[in-house]
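Task card 7
Instruction: Convert sequence to structure tokens.
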Amino acid sequence: MVQKILFFVLAGLFALFGYFQLNDPTGSMLWLVMYLGIAGICLMAGLGRIYNWLQLGVMAGLLIGIVMLFPSLITFFTNDDGIGFAQTMSNDYPYIEEARECGGLIICLLAMYFVYTQRDKNQG
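Output:
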């Protein structure tokens, strides 16, 4: 029962992330679809509908995105500019937004991994 509640909470959080994406001036439909897709998978898991192939495919896509953006995350943590995540976007520091995006993908991957590892417990 606790797992189902967690699945529904995750679904609500990712739906909220998708909603916030609507107000992001730099946001794209890709991020909205991704967050709402993750919310949908969490909702389906809460309802007992677990599709391993879908979760594995989504996790593979998220992992590819993380690998592509990971150099920006490293640049962010090793820069000497004194720039933080709260810094406004600037053409001078493109790695800031990419590091944020990489962080978002990592959060999505962790959520999908949690749902995937709970599949046997939830299907019983």
